[in-house]
Amino acid sequence: MASDGSPTLNLAPPSQVELTNSVNERRSGISLTDEMRKFYAFHAEQMKGKIDAHAAEVHQRQDKMRLINDIIAEINNLTNESNGLDISQNTDLLEKLQIAKDLGVKIKENQTSFNAVERDRLIENLHLAGDSWDKENRHQTQKMEIVVKELDRLMMILKDVDRKEEQAKRPMLAGIRGGG
Fold first, then answer.
1. Distances from the Cα of 37 to the Cαs of 26, 34, 41, 160, in angstroms?
2. Please, which residues bridge with residue 86 across strands?
């Protein structure tokens, strides 16, 4: 079981030797259906890994966007009546701006006092970074949706394998019951 409680499948990709061995084993009792289940389950686990990776990237960017929004809100609260800004005494905001700068937001180094135009440019740069991350998230979400649809199709195939196996067994079991 995974840490989130969901079942996990730990199947390694089949090698040529394993495939050859599985053909020989199949003759001795392992069904083709079981091999198909293993194959599809392995690919389903790979797809789930891709989905989880995409989701983690989206979540990280959402955290960055929350930081940017917090910074903008604090700047708005600290802006004076002439639209100027002095953050020299606000260490919390200075730390957040340094983090934003480290994340790639264009911010002037060591500037703590902003006139109206500089403040507006700072806000605009913060918005540009947030918009960029939002676009990346939308693109990543589209990729994730594609993989989810592929996983759904794979699960339908896996379900169909089971259904077909049951359909094949019914006449045989009926024959055994009737002949016994």
1. 14, 5, 6, 10
2. 113
Other C-beta atoms lying within 10 Å of the C-beta of residue 67: 19
Task: Retrieve residue 159's tokens.
Answer: 């379900």
Per-residue pLDDT in tens (0 to 9) along the chain, 180 residues: 455 554 444 444 555 555 555 555 545 556 777 888 888 889 889 999 999 999 999 999 999 999 999 999 999 999 999 999 999 999 999 999 999 999 999 999 889 999 999 999 999 999 999 999 999 999 999 999 999 999 999 989 888 888 888 887 788 777 787 755
Q: What's the sign of the alpha-carbon dihedral 39, 42, 47, 48?
A: positive
What is the DSSP secondary-structure string of 5-48? Answer: S------PPPPHHHHHHHHHHHHTT--HHHHHHHHHHHHHHHHH
Whether the model clears a pTM of 0.85, i.e. scores above it, the answer is no
